[in-house]
Amino acid sequence: MEIADSVLELIGNTPMVRLKQVTDGISCPVVAKVEISNPGGSSKDRPALSMINAAERDGLLKPGGTIIEPTSGNTGVGLAIVAAQRGYNCIFVVTDKVAPEKIDLLRAYGAEVVVCPVAVPPEDPASYYSTAERLVDETPNAYRPNQYANPSNPQAHFETTGPEIWRQTEGRITHFVAGAGTGGTLTGVGRYLKSQNPNVQVVAADPEGSVYSGGSGRPYLVEGVGEDFWPTTYDPSIVDRVIPISDQDSFLTARRVSEHEGLLIGGSCGTAVAASLQLAAELTADDLVVVLIPDSGRGYLSRVFNNEWMAGYGFLTSDGPTVADVLRAKDDDVPRMVYVQPGDSVRNAVGLMHEHDVSQLPVAKGEMPLAAAEVMGSIDELRIMESAFGESSVLDRSVEDVMSPKMPTIGIGQSVELAVQLLDLAPALLVLDGGRPRTVVARADLLSFLSTDSPIPPATSATAGGAK
User: Is 341 within 8 Å of 399 (Cβ atoms)?
Assistant: First the structure.
């Protein structure tokens, strides 16, 4: 009988499918290696099993022990599946950009989940890396697989994923594309394919801002891919090219593949497919691009596939007049983002407000382009005036001591009607464009636009502004 003895035997031997609808006009065939069919729903099942097998063999993980790992979700699910079969406890540390359904999924497998802020450097005690290390020190009989440095991570792909791709393409593969996260997939698969044919090109698909494509690793919205440090599981000598992909291209490509190919994929899958399409457009019909689809879009329904969330971050555009129209109507087009750092003095903030003739400023930590997660609060003239009236020395204090909560946000493609509703409750809005803070729109901007523009038709949705 064709019956597996355990769910662990179902890991691997995933199918491949040609992408036909999204490759219209591209002569080079693009084939997806669909890792969704693994029991945990992602490619991370492979290294999860490999790392636990190695830890048991080397005596690092004892019976009844606790597995602790920082993860964006998928590695945690893979580890939880192995733990369920072998009687281990699990504690997973995630960042607050991880979709809530992925956190719920980890808990469904019986794991404890600790959520940490994303907008902090790796060495910060609050980061998810530091938190995981602390938990390992505090928990008896704990083991951290450390997918970022564990050689069993790339080895799993060298032994399974690479040979599968070579066999399924009958050795015709010319280019392999995968997201650059821990680097395990790229390194393991790439090393195997090059051992069969040194001319196979290995291409990393990377979020804009990640270290692999030359960034600092500051926060971006796509989950489970990109890094803010260099994992030792990543072998740069294997990778021939890195293609940076924006959050917007990642998310819109994921939606496009899901709608037109019938293959529901997540944001990091969108990153990989967007890079593979860019690559394939440069190639010929004699080439063959294989792109690894690491997981399903089911873990992103509240974000990538939620019109309200997408519109709120500036990824979708509503019908009728939008915030973008308001900004274009200004004499200086879209003004640059003016903000203060939390450590700046209040006096400096007042000077900036006078210089730019505004009454409020965002408070953010970092340099432009900012990520939405790096916005910490706001500061306004009224709050400063009230504070200075009782204590004149407040002007020499740091902004973070007196700042107010963050400004409400609005997507650049959302409707003017929604902006009017929000500005009824707040004096200014922080405009997000492609997931990043772009500028501030105030009541005066809306009044100026409404006084000169044609009448505004009712929006089809008061929340998402009829986003499409």
Answer: yes
Of 20, 33, 44, 97, the active-site residue reads 44
Q: Are 300 and 266 in contact (CB under 8 A)?
A: yes
Q: Which domain holds residue 77?
A: 45-143
Q: Same structural domain for residues 30 and 156? A: yes
Q: Which of 376, 402, 404, 399 is nearest to 219 (CA)?
A: 376
Q: How many residues are present in the chain?
A: 468
One domain, residues 190 and 92: no
In this structure, the answer to whether residues 441 and 297 fall within a common structural domain is no
- Note the pLDDT tens digit of each residue in 354-384: 998 888 999 998 888 888 889 999 999 888 8
- The domain that holds 204 is classified in CATH as 3.40.50.1100
CA distances from 184 to 150, 369, 411 (A): 9, 29, 35
3 state SS of 213: helix
112 and 208 housed in the same domain: no
pTM of the model: 0.91
Instruction: State yes or no: cis peptide before 140, omega within 30 of 0.
Output: no
Give CA–CA dist 272/451, Å, rounded: 45
- In terms of domains, do 94 and 120 share one? yes
Residue 467 within any structural domain of the chain: no
CA atoms of 95 and 16, how far apart (whole Å):
31
Cα distance between residue 230 and residue 46, in whole Å? 21
Q: Please say if 44 is a catalytic residue.
A: yes
Containing 210, the helix (H) or strand (E) segment is none
Dump pLDDT digits (tens) for 45-57.
999 999 999 999 9
Q: Clarify whether residues 28 and 163 are in a common domain.
A: yes
